[in-house]
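Thread title: Can someone regenerate the structure for this chain?

I was given the following input by a collaborator and told the matching structure tokens would be attached. They weren't. Posting the sequence so someone can regenerate them.
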Amino acid sequence: MEVEAAKSLIDFENPVFRAYVFWSAVLVIKMLAMSFLTGKSRMSNQTFANPEDLPSKKLKVKFDDPDVERVRRAHRNDLENILPFFAAGFLYCLINPEPWIAINLFRLVAVARIAHTLVYAVVVIPQPARALAFFFGLLPTAYMAVRVVLFCL
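Best answer:
Regenerated them for you:
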């Protein structure tokens, strides 16, 4: 009986699981786009990390371009925050949360992560814009993880 109940939680008929999958896919696309944003920044600044990538012998390998490094830091920040969301969000689906709350938590994390990239690496906006976007993504993820832990006690 419990196995069937668990299977119904990870089913596309479950609105919580469906929303989790949708917003996770949005975040995967967003993280993939960061690679293109890094490449664009490297090309426009003629900053390359490998000798074989240099389009001209006149250029040198460079690791410290501020624009490229800003995009790379934003990408690393995604890895540090989106990957934990994937785990916490999936586990949160398994505790059968209230759909309205869960769906809005997933939405909030995704929108916050997109906003974080926009204000950090695309159109640089002074603080507290980046901090707000960061915390609006971090807090729901932490909430979901804590709820899972408490559920399991």
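The first helix runs from residue 2 to 9.
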